[in-house]
Amino acid sequence: MMQTQEFSNAQRAQVLTQALPYIRRYNGKIVVVKYGGNAMVSEQLRQQVMEDIVLLWLVGVKVVLVHGGGPEISDMMKKLGKAPEFVDGLRVTDRQTIDIVQMVLAGKVNKTLVNLLEVKGGRAMGISGMDGRLIEAKRKDERLGFVGSITRVNIDPVMDLLEKGYIPVVSTLGCDSEGNTYNINGDTAAAFIAGALGAERLIMMTDIAGVLRDKDDPATLIPQMTIHEAVKLFEQNVISGGMIPKVECCIEAIHRGVRRVIIMDGRVPHAILMEILTDEGAGTMVIGEELE
Fold it and tell me: Which residues form the catalytic set?
C-alpha cells in the first residue's frame, strides 16, 4: 500500500500556476545561497538543495552558491594526523592547515557540488575566492594564523559566469598581494558577495529553524525583523551564542545593498523552494527599515 497519494496531472498543473507569480518576480534576479551545516552533511538533503538550485536556475533565477566545508576540513585534518584547534569558535589555521583548507574547499567540496549540479541538469562552474582575486583579505588575528578579514570583493568573475549562464559555485578562500591564502568565514563571504552583486535575496542555511525568542522552543520563531528590531533583540540577549555572528552577517549584507536576508533551517526538505516560490517562506527574514 502506498504511503503517499500521487499527485494528479491537474494537481501538478495547479501547483505550477500558483508558483507563477513568484517565478515572474525572481526571473532575472540574483539570489545568493550560503550552503553548509547539516544540509551539506546529509546526502539526502544535499541532493534536495541541488535540485532546488537547478530548478530556480531553469526558471530564470540567477543563483550563486557560496559554500563552506568545516566538517570536511576537520575530517581531513584528522586523517593527516593534525588535531583541529579553535579560538572563539574560529579555526586556528597555520601554514599546514591552510594548505588542507585550500585542498578541501577549492578541491573536493567545490568540485563535488559542481558535479552534483551538473548531474541534476544545471550548468555550474566552480571558483574560489582566490580566482580573479574575487576575495581580497588580510590577517584577522595573529592567534588564528591564516584566518582572513575581507578587505575587498572583485565581483567580475562571478558576474562573468552569471552572464554566460552558469551557476557560480564559490569556495570561501581569500588572498592578499603577497600571495598568502586565507580561510574566510563562509557567512561573511556570502554577505560581502551578495552585497557586491546587489542580490535580491541572500539565503543563509543553518541547523536551526531561524531566530527564536526562546532558543528551546521552535514555536517562538521570529518570521521577520528589521535591523532596528534585531539590535533590540541583541540587547535583550534573545539573539545569543552562535546566532550572533549569523545575524551580524545579515545586517552586513543589508547595509551592503541586499534587499532581504533569510536565516533558513537547512534541515527542512526543499526549504529554498518554499522560501522563494511560496508566501509562507522558511526561517527568519531580516530586512532594511525601508522595506518594513
Answer: 34, 37, 70, 187, 246
CA-based R_g, the chain, Å: 19
Task: Give the residue from 212, 203, 181 showing the smallest Cα distance to 261.
Answer: 203
Buried b (16+ CB within 10 A) or exposed e, 122-132: bebbbbbbbbe
d(CA 187, CA 73): 17
CATH of span 26-291: 3.40.1160.10
Distance CA 166, CA 171 (A): 16
Q: Is 122 helix (H, G, I), strand (E, B) or coil?
A: coil
Cβ distance 282 to 262 under 8 Å? Answer: yes
The H or E element that residue 248 is part of is: helix 243-255
Give the residues across from 152 on adjacent strands: 136
Q: Which residues contact 10 (CB under 8 A, 6 or more apart)?
A: none
CB 67 within 8 A of CB 186: yes
Spacing of C-alpha 224 from chain mean position? 19
What are the residues whose beta carbons fall under 8 Å from the beta carbon of 235, sequence distance 6 or more?
none
In 82-163, at which residue ranges do the beta strands (DSSP E only) sit? Answer: 86-87, 90-91, 124-128, 135-139, 148-153
Per-residue pLDDT of the chain (292 residues; tens, 9 = 90+): 344 456 677 777 777 777 788 888 888 999 999 998 656 777 888 899 999 999 999 999 999 999 988 888 999 999 999 988 888 778 899 999 999 999 999 999 999 999 999 999 999 999 999 999 999 999 998 999 999 999 999 999 999 999 999 999 999 999 999 999 999 999 999 999 999 999 999 999 988 788 888 877 888 889 899 998 998 888 888 887 778 888 889 999 999 999 899 998 888 888 888 888 877 667 889 988 655 5
The 3-state DSSP class for residue 167 equals strand
213 — phi, psi (to 5°)?
-65, -35
